[in-house]
Design a protein that fits this description.
It is a single chain. This protein is of the alpha+beta class. It has three helices and eight strands; from the N terminus they run βββαβββαββα. It has one domain. The termini are far apart.
């Protein structure tokens, strides 16, 4: 009988993130590869990419993550928490909703990002029936 032994191959490192500089509509942009979506790239204005780079956020792996409703958002892990890159670009707080003019959530150029009002669930206001209010006043 032959027994299978564990392979002594070293673990594969994740591929290095590829970054391309190009122009869109005459403005310089950066295309950064999404680490968990092979062949997909996030598009960011060069100025914003340099600002994120100064904070050390461009060396980290950017990932596309679902919000549970089949919408993918580009996120980066900061201090153990996932943060949306679009919010970091717009300098918006965590609860601020960000809209995308062309509905492409990988296109994070400033001309495509729009701050929106948060969509919180409205709390139901419970009204008392008139007869209960009359009994209390009588």
């Amino acid at each position: 009988m032959t027994t299978k032994t564990k392979s002594s191959r070293p673990k594969r490192k994740p591929p290095a993130t590829r970054i391309f500089h190009t122009k869109m509509n005459g403005k310089p942009v950066v295309k950064k590869e999404i680490s968990n979506r092979e062949g997909r790239f996030a598009i960011v204005d060069l100025k914003d990419f340099e600002r994120l780079s100064a904070k050390g956020l461009t060396e980290k792996h950017w990932m596309a993550n679902s919000n549970g409703c089949s919408h993918l958002y580009v996120r980066v892990k900061i201090d153990g928490n996932n943060s949306q890159v679009a919010r970091l670009i717009m300098n918006e707080p965590a609860r601020q909703a960000i809209g995308y003019r062309n509905n492409n959530r990988l296109d994070m150029r400033r001309c495509n990002l729009v701050p929106q009002k948060p969509r919180y669930k409205k709390q139901m206001v419970r009204k008392l029936p008139e007869d209960i209010e009359e009994k209390e006043t009588a």
